[in-house]
Input
Amino acid sequence: MKKSLLIALAALSLSWIACNQQVHVESMFKNPETKDKVFTAILDDHELMTEFMTKMMSSEHAMMMMTGNQDMMGKMMGNGNMMKMMKDNPDMMHSLMGDMVKDGKMMEHMMTMMNSEGMMSDECMQSCMKMMGDKGMSMDMGSKGNNDSGMDMNKKADQHDSHH
Output
């Protein structure tokens, strides 16, 4: 009887110790199924996902990986997502635009897009480029020396400047 009681006590003790063992995160992520369940739990829970995103935004490594992933950035910025984010958050839009106007290459790209969409005339574009050049912003207009009419863009800029 004493032997049975001792064996039962030993089994109970081992069970209690096993139940109180802490799960090691590293070992948990070694199992693909467990890892997938953890990721799915985070993705499916609004509070967990918000916590995760906050933690991610405070991690320099995570931010570097996100901005370096062109596919992810394309998905975040594409399909009108960028426009929605800027409309929903005017402070973000002003910050982005403020950064862009300090970057000659970005401004050149934006003006080229506006010009190709018919929102900015060649003359206005050249006038803006000249003004930005006068302010020391570097731009590469070498590939845009001539337009469809054959007139040199610098001549057009001079003509445009004459009515300012």
Q: What stands out?
A: The two ends are 108 Å apart (CA to CA).
